[in-house]
Design brief:
Elements: E1 10-14, H1 19-35, E2 40-46, H2 47-53, E3 59-64, H3 71-79, E4 84-90, H4 95-101, E5 105-111, E6 127-128, H5 137-147, H6 163-172, E7 179-182, H7 195-207, E8 211-216, H8 220-232, E9 238-241, H9 246-255, E10 258-262, H10 265-272, E11 277-281, H11 286-289, E12 299-300, H12 302-309, H13 331-341
Parallel strand pairs: 1-2, 1-4, 2-3, 4-5, 5-6, 7-8, 7-10, 8-9, 10-11, 11-12
Helix pairs in contact: 1-5, 1-10, 6-9, 7-8, 7-13, 9-10
Length: about 350
């Protein structure tokens, strides 16, 4: 399908979740805005993710609340009633996203290439991005911008936060203060590192003049993990688990000197703020899902684990399965990365 993207006036983006992925998507959206500053952009997004990005300039958000079940689709249809977009960027491979896309009217419907267009996505699109052999998620997203004619695909981010949240972070972390933020919890417990090892790294950091903060959400898993870490630590660690909004956390990550995290949203939030991240990986390929601008700082045992579980050739992005994989990450390996960042 030949299209004159320079003449388009409206674009709809469908990317519902998760925090890390919407951070990648922001870079793509802002690359599009740079080339097409007059383009009207509507983003269909998840309820939680909206809380992080709701101040994004030049974007109208439509919230898709999956907790409403089938009613969420009717609500989306109602929210978009009467709108027909020039282009839909269908950027989520999930059955609920495929169904949600049916509520969006668009002339050109761009999805992933054949190898990545799973969960029926290929049934509801009429154009595909170029295939990529070994893309980072961010690069995969940038393929959508490239498809509609964007030339400059260099990722950059501008995610505004309210002044009150910036003030919160500035009061918490003084200018020039040496601060390590540990965001210890991923969405699945098996991707978390051991609490005693987080504590050992925190103790080392304090000995090197860092102030150490624990940050994350209010879930019981995260609260319990924070208690365990502080219990094992011999030095003072301050816990702000469950005590910040997403935009407050974003501001805190901006003020941090360095962030340590497993494969979780705050790692990617820190990347958007230009803060170095030491990512801890065992289950997923950091080449695909690691902190984009800090891939050299990643401590990963993924390659050795996946070779034990799968025979070559191994499909890009294949996840390693099983409990206890994160125990293969040594405290010394993380401390080495931290030392290199000082």
């Amino acid at each position: 399908m030949k299209a004159d993207y320079a003449s388009m006036t409206s674009l709809c983006l469908l990317r519902l979740s998760a925090i890390g992925d919407v951070c990648h998507a922001v870079a793509m959206v802002q690359a599009i805005q740079k080339q097409y500053p007059q383009l009207h952009i509507t983003w269909v997004i998840g309820k939680v993710e909206y809380q992080l990005l709701k101040h994004l300039p030049g974007v109208q958000f439509v919230i898709f609340d999956k907790s409403q079940g089938w009613r969420s689709y009717a609500a989306l249809r109602k929210s978009l009633a009467g709108q027909k977009f020039d282009v839909l960027l269908h950027m989520q491979v999930a059955l609920r996203a495929t169904i949600a896309s049916l509520m969006i009217s668009a002339k050109i419907r761009i999805g992933f290439d054949k190898a990545r267009a799973k969960e029926g996505q290929w049934l509801v699109t009429n154009k595909a991005v170029e295939p990529l052999a070994t893309p980072h998620v961010l690069e995969g997203f940038m393929g959508f911008a490239k498809t509609i004619g964007v030339k400059d695909l260099t990722p950059c981010w501008n995610i505004p936060v309210p002044d009150s949240d910036t003030q919160f972070a500035n009061e918490l972390i003084a200018e020039g203060e040496k601060v390590l933020v540990i965001c210890p919890a991923a969405s699945k417990a098996e991707r978390n590192w051991l609490p005693e090892r987080y504590a050992a790294v925190a103790d080392y950091a304090v000995s090197k003049g860092y102030r150490v903060l624990l940050c994350g959400g209010p879930s019981q898993l995260e609260v319990e993990l924070a208690k365990q870490i502080t219990g094992f630590a011999t030095q003072q660690i301050e816990s702000f688990i469950g005590k910040t909004s997403l935009t407050q956390l974003l501001a805190v990550l901006k003020n941090a000197s360095v962030v340590i995290a497993p494969d979780t949203g705050p790692a990617h939030m820190a990347v958007t703020q230009g803060t170095p991240v030491i990512g801890l990986y065992a289950h997923s390929n950091p080449g695909r899902t690691g902190p984009y601008n800090s891939l050299d700082n990643v401590v990963s045992v993924y390659d050795e684990v996946i070779l034990e579980q799968k025979s070559a050739p191994i499909k890009w992005g294949t996840r390693a399965k099983g409990e206890g994989l994160m125990t293969r990450i040594a405290v010394e390996s993380v401390i080495e990365k931290l030392t290199l960042l000082e």
